[in-house]
Amino acid sequence: MKIAVVGAGAMGSLFGSMLAEAGNEVWLHDVWVEHVQAINKDGLAIERGGKIRTLSISATTDPEQIGQAELIIIFVKSTHTAAAAESARKLAGSDGMVMTLQNGMGNADILAKFIDPERVLAGTTSHGATMLGPGRIRHAGVGATTIGAWAETKQGAERALKLSAFFTKLGIESEAVDDVRSVLWNKLLINIGLNAITALTAIKNGQILDLEITRELSRKAVEEAMKIAGRMNIKVGEDTVDKVYAVADATAANRSSMGQDVDNKRQTEIGTINGYIVREAKRLGMQAPVNETLTALVETLQFHYK
Ligand code: NAD
Fold first, then answer.
1. Cα 206 to the chain's mean position, in Å?
2. Ligand 1 pocket, residue 134 CB under 6 Å
3. Which of 19, 92, 193, 214 could crosslink 96 through cysteines, CB 3.0-4.6 Å?
4. d(CA 15, CA 123)
């Protein structure tokens, strides 16, 4: 398959490398010039479990160089999804599929404005990756990938099924689901319970559990979001707060992705996580004061980075 990755940072480079190593024609597209140059000059170095392998793979800052692709995978941070969608539209031509495995909500909706919604796929992945420097990534965690059609049609479901079977055959364990919105929401709720709080307070995930007052803040943010999900008829687990605490415990020593963004003075994905809840609450005439406060604080923090 001819595959283009738009946003070839940690995760885009990881998925691009796994698909290229399995024999596909893969192009990495990124706007980060040094990274693209390093990949083209010395290959992409992937560290996993202390071992480094180097892969020869095509990278470009110019999507026009790629031509048309059968599958376009979007892995920019959600702040750049609209720009990535513009590139994806050209890369997809009249029949390419476009898939997002980004975190947060709203990415697939943006893609569906640029590309025929029938060809938009969304999902989540439990793989983890870290950027080490230009041309260098770490494969930090291995896990399952879930894929579903954004337009819940029969044709979309068939595409998701085919793609997940294709990925699994290549060694990227994947599953197709009919109700991908609920899968994205369940991941969103975990991020709502952990990300902004850890980003604002400089704590690690596990430290959310140390104080009753922090646990309560996390619980309130999640329960508020669950009410919005309920109004939108999205199925979310009743035990979601317990799951948030379990994830905090299981990843106790980790800094959340938003925490890492704040540590490195990068724009965060707040707008598609807690900020998404605030927008949806307004649209539905509901209240979301906890998420509104968390969003305002993270936005203030990132606006004033020095
Ligand atoms: P990253 O910052 O490492 O990579 C994003 C890349 O996109 C950067 O290299 C950037 O230069 C590039 N980019 C920005 N604008 C672009 C544009 N218009 N066109 C092309 N490239 C552009 O981020 P990441 O950690 O790989 O995360 C990507 C997405 O995956 C996020 O939504 C994140 O939440 C999600 N995610 C990350 C992980 C993880 O372990 N890192 C795990 C699951 C999901």
1. 22
2. no
3. 92
4. 14
- Give the pLDDT score at 186: 97
159 vs 146: CA distance, rounded Å: 13
Q: Using alpha carbons, select from 216, 241, 214, 213 the residue that is nearest to residue 227.
A: 241
Partner residues linked to 53 by β-bridges: 46
Cα–ligand 1 centroid distance for 24 (angstroms): 21
Closest of 1, 28, 2 to residue 15, by C-alpha: 28
pLDDT of 63: 97
Q: Which of 60, 72, 80 should be mutated for ligand 1, with most atoms under 8 A from CB?
A: 80
Cα of 11 vs centre of ligand 1, distance in Å, is: 6
Q: What are the pLDDT digits (tens) for 73-85?
A: 999 999 999 999 9
Give catalytic residue positions.
187
Instruction: Answer for the pair 198, 255: CB distance below 8 angstroms, yes or no.
Output: yes
Q: What's the pLDDT band for 18 if we cut at 50, 70, 90?
A: very high
Buried b (16+ CB within 10 A) or exposed e, 82-109: eebbebbbbbbeeebbbbbbbbbbbbbe
- Tell me the pTM: 0.96
Which atom of ligand 1 is the closest one to the Cα of 86? 18
Query: What's the CA-to-centroid distance between 78 and ligand 1, angstroms?
Result: 8
Q: How confident is the model at residue 178 (pLDDT cuts 50, 70, 90)?
A: very high
Rounded Cα distance, 113 and 65, in Å: 24
